[in-house]
Amino acid sequence: MKQGDVKRRSVPLFACLEGYPRQLVGGEIHEYARIVAAANIYDELMMERPSRPPYEVNQAISLIKRMAGTYFDPAVVTAMISNIASYPVGSIIKLNTGDIGIVTQVNNATPHRPIVRIVFNNNLKKVNEPHEIDLAKLTTIMPVQVLSERELSKLIPRFVDN
To answer: pLDDT of 131-143, one tens digit each?
Structure first.
């Protein structure tokens, strides 16, 4: 094979700490390969497949965390997850108060505690004056659910009608 030629081969979904394909383990696996293995699975989980819808960000993060130490380098997982917002800007989330809001900003210091613009109250009525709350400063209020497209589609008529 000449330099620059790429030989394509089938690689299993988990090229990981188990040593596939060359039976390398732990630190013998190049750091970049360990990073790519975790990032690739995260990407796969976030994509829609014919057999399943895409995972929610927090579901994918939870699954990757559970795989740390067995399939992925725990240090790589920790570093990767620290750079993924659990609630990306634009996410529609339900809070433990019952209010529903749109994530407008991610707090860099506490990415799991975003700034949220409240648009529906706990009775699913459009609020007269949407307002932002910083969940990093309000420790008793927390996200409990990222709303799916199906749940969001039920809210849109209420939003338009109110």
So the answer is: 999 999 998 999 9
Helix ranges (DSSP H) in the chain: 31-46, 57-67, 74-81, 149-161
Distance CA 104, CA 133 (A): 10
Amino acid at 73: D
Token representation of residue 79: 């570093």
Cis check for the bond before 53: say yes or no (omega within 30 of 0): no
Tell me the whole-structure pTM to 2 decimals: 0.63
DSSP state of 2: -
For the chain, the C-alpha Rg in angstroms (whole number) is 20
Alpha-carbon distance 35 to 89, whole Å?
25
Which amino acid appears at position 10 of this protein? S
pLDDT of 33-50, one tens digit each?
889 989 999 999 999 889
